[in-house]
Amino acid sequence: MCGIWALFGSDECLSVQCLSAMKIAHRGPDAFRFENVNGFTNCCFGFHRLAVVDQLYGMQPIRVKKFPYLWLCYNGEIYNFKQLQKQFGFEYQTLVDGEVILHLYNKGGIEQTASMLDGVFAFILLDTANRKVFLARDTYGVRPLFKVLTDDGFLGVCSEAKGLINLKHSESLFPKVEPFLPGHYEVLDLKPSGKVASVELVKFHSYKDEPLHAACDTVENLPSGFDLETVKSNIRILFENAVRKRLMAHRRIGCLLSGGLDSSLVAAIVLKLMKEMNINYPLQTFAIGMENSPDLLAARKVAAHIGSEHHEVIFNSEEGIQAIEEVIFSLETYDITTVRASIGMYLVSKYIRKKTDSVVIFSGEGSDELTQGYIYFHKAPSPEEAAEESERLLKELYMFDVLRADRTTAAHGLELRVPFLDHRFTSYYLSLPAEMRTPKNGIEKYLLRQSFEDSNLLPKEILWRPKEAFSDGITSVKKSWFSILQDYIDQQVDDLLLEKAAEKYPFNPPKTKESYYYRQIFEKHYPGRSSWLPHYWMPRWVKTADPSARTLKHYKSAAQE
Fold first, then answer.
1. What residue numbers bound the domain in which 42 lies?
2. Is 56 marked within a binding site?
3. Pairing mode, if any, of strands 70-78 and 119-127?
4. pTM, 2 dp
5. According to its UniProt record, which residues of this chain constitute the active site (predicted)?
6. Would you state the pLDDT for residue 13?
C-alpha cells in the first residue's frame, strides 16, 4: 500500500504543484520521493512508500537497467510475480513484486500486462521510447486511482482525489477530478510538450470471466460440475488459496475481526496457514465496539477458538462522533452507510498503527456482495434477480465498501488484504447456478457457511451467526450506533435546513438529517464534487429511507431470539 501521484504537461511551477502530493502522505509513512522525467521538464512522479516487500530496493518510480525508457509508479501487490517469472523466464533486478509489470509490458504490451496480473493494483506506466502513458486499475478497484485530464492535455493522477483538487492549471480553475474505472486501462499519447491525448479506455477483465492469469495459478484445474460436494470442496480450495497468496509480506500480518462470518473465516484460515508456513509470531486480531457490543462478544469467542493474540478496542459515543469529520475527509464521500460503517474501522486502524506493529491487515470485504450476505437478499423476487443484484454490488464496490476499507486503513498507514475479492474465487462463485447462491432457510450466505461446516475452523454459532451490519454490530441492540448518531445529529441539523435540502444540494439531495450532516462536512472539504457519489447505497426490494439493517423487518439479533 502506497501513495502514487504524477503530473504530465503542467503549466504551473512543479514545486508549487508538488505540495498537492503531500495530501496523501499518510498512505506511505516510510519514505517519500519526487522525480522529474528526463527531457520533460513539466512532468513528474511523486511517491509515498509503505515498505511491505523489498525494503531496500522498493522506491519508486521503478526503473530497471534493462528498460531505461520505462517508468513505473504503482500501488498494490502482485501475488503471482514469481509464477510469471518462472513461466516467462523474466530476470528481475529487485525483489519488488511490481517489477513484473515492466517485464510483462515489454513482452506483450499493456493488454496482456493488465490481464496477467493476479493482485490488486493501480499504476502509471510511462514509456518514453514510444511516447505513451498507461493507467490501469484492478478488477474491483481495491486500490484507488483518480485522474484529472483537461481539454488541452494536462494530466494529473493520484491514489486519492485530495491530491488533485488543488492543482493549478491555466485553462481551468477547478479541473474535473474523477475516479479511474476498475478493471480498465487507458492509453495516452505523450506529446513533446509533455501534454497528453487519450487514445483509448479499455475494459480488460470482467469479474464473471475466469482471469487470464488462472493458467499459471498454483491451484490446477478444479473438478467441474455443480453437485454440492464438488462445489463445496472447490469453494474451500479456492478461498484457502486466496488467503495463502495474500500472506506475501515482510511486515507483520494482523486481522480485523468483527466476529461475523466473513472476518472470522479469514482470521481462522490466516492462522491455519501461518502455522503451516512456519510464520513464528502470534497472529494479532482486532475487534472494536462499545462495551458489551455483539461484535466484541462474538470476536472474543472466535479469537479463543482459533488462538490469536486478541485486542479489543472499546470506544464511546463521544469518540465516534468526534471522528466523523476526519473520517469524511479521509473517505471523500458522503454516502450514509459508508460513513457510518467507517467510524469503527477508522478508530480500530488508528489503534493498530499506534499500539502494535501489525501493518498488513486482512479483512472480510467483498463477501456480502459476492455471496449475497445483505439481509435484503431474502426479499429477492427470484434467484436470477438476486444474482444480478450481486453483480451490480460488485461492480460498484469501489464507491462503497472497498473505498471504506482502503481509506480507513490507509489513513493510518496500514495495508489492507481482501481475499474474498480474489479474481479466481469470485469468478468461480459467480459461475455457480443462481439458485445455489441464494439465502436458504432464512439464512444468508448459506452456501459459504455450508462449505466450511465440517472444517472445525469456527465455532458453529459463529459459522451460522446472522448478518450484522458492521456499523450496528459495534454497539448493543438496545442503543445502536445508528440511534446514537440520530440523537446527536438531530441537535445539529434543524428541520428547516432539511426541508430546503433539495434547493441547496440538488444532486443527491439529503433525505434525512444524518445525510444532510454528512453532506455539509463533505462540501466543506470538497465543494462542488458531489458527483463522485453517483447515488446513495440503499437496499433493494424493500421500502426504506435508511440503509441500516436494523430498519429491515427481517433483522434479528441474538438478544431478541
1. 1-201
2. no
3. antiparallel
4. 0.94
5. 2 (for gatase activity)
6. 74
